[in-house]
Design goal:
By secondary structure, the protein is α/β, with parallel strands linked by helices. 42% of the residues lie in helices and 12% in strands. The strands form 6 sheets. Strands 1-5-7-8-9-10-11 form a 7-stranded parallel sheet. The structure holds glutamine and zinc ion. Zinc ion is lined by residues 456, 626, 666, 668, 690, 751-752.
Length: 779
């Protein structure tokens, strides 16, 4: 390796992998369906890779200087690391070739399972909406250097004149993200395998150097979590690991990145970077959007190590305040005394490709936005300004400033009537009457049996439902024909539930494409994109809405559907709303005010909807908060502040309800054991919660906490077409009854039935009702 530090002036940590036209998704799904063979998949992936490289060059990165990252995972970057390390859990050992590598079919078997084996578990990547495949590491997991795909990519692009910078999840983060393999001794910590992992990384570095890589990027965002402080302290594990890696003969130069927050001890910002520098790493990255600015002392300790400054937000869609960022970069450059690289705060994986692809945004919005392609340019412009001085980029600075000014002054960003309302809020607006009084009023009104049965809201979104939605969008059926179709669908769903004997019914949500987008479309302050897809996991993409202005509700929008559904039945039918925290978590949210303020605006809009539902005679309203756990900050020290504003927003949405109106909420996608007191703080009358896969673990936590309101632990895992038997559901009901009094329990599935088919749904719900009836007879 050359000792001269040649890291480029501008770079990005990663780029969206899915493709501007979702090319990768389409190719991968065609391969799974058998419509494309392996060579066809490879060809499609190569084409997308060439397109990405060409596009990044066009946007201002350089072919020759390692500024273009090679992160082209077909499914997930953590799965790529598992494959590169040959770190297959024993239950998948048969997938490994002689040298420990997996082929394409094996790679997807890890991701998706096969007939007998469940896939690797999917879990949230830090506090984002991206999900990675969790490595399963035990005392005997193999670690070998088999990064064949990555080396091939580096070679392939080298032949085309591009020196890529291969990207890998770093060894410390890889093991922090892993879980102990089933059967590992109690207390086993995957980090115990660090030396074996490092040996494999050493091998990978050597083969990447041989393939022509001059720089390698190791991502260590794991250091921004609770364990980062200890691990990245001077003399700690990180220092030891990186000394070893830096000591590899003939290796490429190393960039270590730390997105998603402040690496190491948050009270000593930058110390972790200094430690990496001491260990011999050539470049270190800091997230300057979510993380704190490194201290002057830490910056001085970098010595000749290049600082890669993440000033362009990789997680949101707002245009950068270039003047401000340039100021930060100039300060850093002065303090380090050497050149600083301009970069993104994280990979651009979390944002859509290109604002320019949007044709339907409100006119004012595009100029305020930067998707991935615009962010690449921002990094390039900032680097030019840093090297050449402000006059070199005067026009760009001016442009950005005008857009920001326009945004700040635009009608709708600050709406007086909304502000007056949030400003005038008193504690009373967040508080309902006492829970016991509510329970009495509700029981009198609803007269529900012991162990009431219900579902979470959506019924199967069949091909007909999706077809009708597409048809009205393309204009091939009229709006009134579409609404007629929806009414018919709702009537069918209501009749089906009555026939099954469920106690509290739902309308089935056929009018909703997505539980957040539907609300974004019906509230002011939001915009929807057409092409703004971001990868959620594997080939799954979502299209988050953009929350750009003050939020308010022009008119009631769920009421017509809910009252129509209620008019068809004597049984209570639940109004169905998405909660404020979930709406924020799954949208791109304005960055010019605290999230809590925005959440309260959304909450007030929902509060109005609840009042209108009540006025229409609806007795039960469910406010879903599946993402409540998702936004929980990475460090436990920050949890309370988050839970305070998020729980308060939920209460603001629901506390206007009369005593006799039963408020439900629904939580899923996470384990909730550690946030029971926050669940309690929501003060909902009934909470349904995902629990079937963990065999109702959460009921013990709730009982231990002394939770006293209604609770419906899911007794039917809706994540696969499998039909749970009556006996199996009875077993789960018994588990719940053993922990909590029958008067508190509700019986329901884990989550909405949207992704299921009718055949399995009907059989499963029939078993759920039968098991409940049997349980009622025996308590
Ligand atoms: N009410 C929504 C549904 O049933 C809840 C979805 C969710 O929890 N993600 O689809
Ligand atoms: Zn759910």
């Amino acid at each position: 390796m050359s000792t001269e530090n040649t890291f480029p002036a501008a770079t990005i940590l990663g780029y969206p992998r899915i493709g501007p036209g979702r090319e990768l998704k389409k190719a991968v799904e065609a391969y799974w369906a058998g419509r494309l063979d392996e060579a066809g998949l490879q060809h499609a992936a190569d084409q997308l890779q060439d397109r990405t490289v060409a596009r990044l060059v066009e946007l201002g990165l350089d072919r020759g200087d390692s500024s273009i990252p090679a992160d082209f995972a077909l499914y997930d970057q953590v799965l790529d690391a598992t494959a590169a390390l040959g770190a297959l859990p024993a239950r998948f050992a048969d997938l490994a070739a002689e040298d420990g590598s997996v082929d394409t079919a094996g790679y997807f078997t890890l991701a998706r399972g096969d007939g007998e084996r469940a896939p690797l578990e999917l879990t949230k990547w830090f506090d984002t909406n991206y999900h990675y495949l969790v490595p399963e590491i035990g005392p005997g997991t193999p670690f070998v250097a088999v990064a064949h795909g990555l080396t091939a990519t580096v070679r392939r692009q080298r032949e085309r004149g591009t020196v890529l910078r291969p990207v890998l999840v770093g060894p410390v983060t890889y093991l922090l993200l892993a879980k102990p393999e089933d059967g590992a001794p109690a207390g086993f910590d995957p980090l115990e395998r660090i030396d074996d992992a490092v040996a494999a990384y050493v091998g990978i570095l050597a083969s990447l150097a041989e393939a022509g890589a001059e720089w390698v990027q190791l991502d260590e965002p794991g250091l921004v979590g609770d364990r980062g402080g200890e691990l990245a302290a001077p003399g700690g594990l990180v220092e030891r690991v990186y000394r070893q890696l830096a000591g590899t003969a003939g290796r490429p130069a190393l960039l270590v990145t730390t997105g998603y927050g402040t690496a190491g001890d948050p009270a000593r910002p930058g110390q972790a970077l200094a430690v990496l520098a001491t260990a011999g790493v050539e470049a270190v990255h800091a997230d300057l959007v979510r993380g704190s600015r490194p201290s002057a002392e830490a910056l001085q300790a970098l010595g000749g190590t290049r600082l890669v400054a993440g000033v362009v937000d990789g997680r949101n869609v707002w245009r950068n305040d270039l003047r401000f960022s340039l100021g930060v970069l100039e300060d850093l450059q002065q303090e380090t005394g050497t050149a600083v690289t301009t970069a993104t705060s994280t990979s651009l994986l979390h944002v859509p490709h290109d604002v320019q692809a949007e044709t339907g945004l409100p006119e004012h919005l595009p100029a305020w936005l930067a998707f991935a392609d615009q962010k690449v340019r921002e990094a390039v412009v900032l680097a030019r300004g840093l090297a050449g001085g402000r006059p070199a980029v005067a026009a760009e600075l001016q442009d950005a400033e005008e857009a920001l000014g326009h945004r700040a002054r635009f009608d709708g960003v600050v709406v007086d009537s909304v502000r007056t309302r949030t400003r005038g809020l008193t504690e009373e607006a967040f508080t309902r009457g006492p829970a016991e009084r509510r329970a009495e009023a509700q029981q009198e009104r609803l007269g529900l049996p012991l162990l009431p049965t219900t579902t979470i809201g959506s019924f199967p979104q069949t091909r007909e439902v999706r077809g009708a939605r597409a048809a009205v969008r393309s204009g091939s059926i009229s709006q009134s024909e579409y609404e007629q179709f929806l009414r018919q669908e709702i009537a069918n769903v209501v009749r089906l539930q009555e026939g099954l004997g469920l106690d509290v019914l739902v309308h089935g949500e056929p009018e909703r494409n997505d539980m957040v987008q539907y609300f974004a479309e019906n509230l002011d302050g939001f915009a929807a994109t057409e092409q703004g897809w971001v990868q959620s996991y594997g080939s799954r993409c979502t299209r988050p809405s953009i929350l750009w202005g003050d939020v308010s509700r022009p008119q009631a929008f769920t009421v017509p559907w809910i009252s129509f559904a209620q008019s068809l039945t004597e049984r209570p039918l639940k109004g169905m709303l998405t909660g404020p925290v979930t709406i924020l978590a799954w949208s791109f949210v304005r960055d010019d005010q605290p999230l809590g303020e925005t959440a309260n605006q959304v909450a007030l809009a929902l509060r109005d909807e609840i009042a209108d539902l009540e006025a229409a005679g609806i007795a039960i309203v469910q406010v879903d908060e599946p993402a409540l756990r998702e936004l929980l900050p990475l460090r436990s020290a920050d949890h309370q502040a988050y839970l305070d504003w998020s729980v308060r927003a939920f209460r603001l949405a629901t506390a206007g309800a009369e005593d006799g109106t039963q408020i439900h909420t629904h939580l899923c996608y996470s384990e909730f054991g550690e946030v029971i007191s926050a669940i309690d703080g929501l003060d909902a009358d009934v909470t349904s919660i995902e629990a079937a896969r963990s065999r109702l673990e959460v009921v013990a936590d709730l009982a231990g906490f002394g939770y006293s309101r209604g609770i419906g632990p899911g007794v039917y895992d809706i994540h696969s077409p499998r039909v749970p038997s009556e006996q199996e559901i009875s077993g789960l009901i018994d588990t719940a009854l053993a922990a909590l009094p029958a008067q508190q329990l509700w019986i329901n599935p884990d989550c909405g039935l949207k992704t299921r088919g009718y055949d399995e749904t009907v059989l499963s719900l029939r078993n759920l009702v039968a098991a409940t009836r049997a349980a009622r007879g025996s308590v």
